[in-house]
Design a protein that fits this description.
Number of strands: 13
Number of helices: 1
Shape: elongated
Largest sheet: 9 strands, antiparallel
Order of helices and strands: EEHEEEEEEEEEEE
Strand content: over 45%
Radius of gyration: 23 Å
Length: 210
Amino acid sequence: YFPGVHLKYEPFGGFMTRLSWSTGVGRPAFGSIIPLDTVDDLTMRVTRSNPELKPQYANSYDLTAEYYFKSQGVISVGAFKKDIEDYIFTDSSQVIGGGRDNGFDGEYEGYSLTTQRNGGSAKIEGLEFNYQQQLNFLAGWAKGFGVNLNYTTLRTEGNYGGTTVLTTNSLAGFLPKSGNVGISYRGHGFDLRLLATYRGEYLTSNSTTP
């Protein structure tokens, strides 16, 4: 069972506020839990799936304010928080040892090992901004243009199953800053869209040499 509570309040026409608490699960992809080793001799790296990977569970809290324009548009600001248990991350911190009991029948000594694991707990706090509008207040053919943009910033902390708490730039798999901006045109039988995406720097995996 994944219960949730969702509230919506509209103080006046076109302005909407939402408050919610929800629970959820994130299950690993089948490719991550079916036994498989992929070896790259050029980079001396072994990528191994993890059949013991467990789902990650989350409690989510969201607060959003939205204003809808009469001219087919919306602007919104939201704040959210997620508390995650057993979160899934990519671990590249290990090096395969020597000997017949190294897990690879004695092969691949000195190769780096990449796999996915369950961490301990993680907390995500974030803000997001969104604006989109069809510019139908313009004259003639120009009213077919539309614009949209959004931006999200995150603050994260957590651990890898230990006692050390890591913050945004040290927690693998979380994207601290991201955004999109786009322009579109609809008219004369065309539906054209141009979109640019921004992704800030982030850590892809846990490593002893990040």
